[in-house]
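Hi P.,

Sorry for the delay on this. The queue was packed all week, but I finally got your sequence through. Input first:
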Amino acid sequence: MFTAILGPSGSGKTTLLNFLSGRLYSKNLKITGSVQINGKEIVRIDKYQHLIAYVMQDDVLLAMLTPYEAIKFAADMRLSIPEAERESRTRELLKVLGIEKCSNTRVGNALIRGVSGGERKRTSIGVELITNPSLIYLDEPTTGLDSTTALRIVQLLASLAKTGRTVVSTIHQPSSEIFSSFD
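Then the structure:
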């Protein structure tokens, strides 16, 4: 299932996503209601963190790493499986995300030339997908991308949803093509 949370700037989309993912920590905020996963009420979302991936709007990738290195590092830090399996999962994810060709190019940033915006976004997604999560939250995954690249990212997310994952994304102003990609 690929679900979108739509709304104008300042409407609370990111706050809702942060709450649902267990990343909202505020003593000043009063929250009521319940959260359920598969019909079961969740009291402590932190017990489900191993099933949840969260891709932030702003990438937090190290500029000097390549997409391969960024995803492999995430695999090495987060997976307790043999090295050969971590390597295999990293290579497979690069292929699924369509970033094999740029896998040895620096990610870059505002000062260091690197991969394109779409390749950078897919690398961020890959860093989170390495644990094979069941639930993927993305905050404004198309921000800063041109319309063609944004559509490709959304199509990638839709294909991930078709593999049995639940994908939830905030989005500000989707094009009609992007809007039709949501379930």
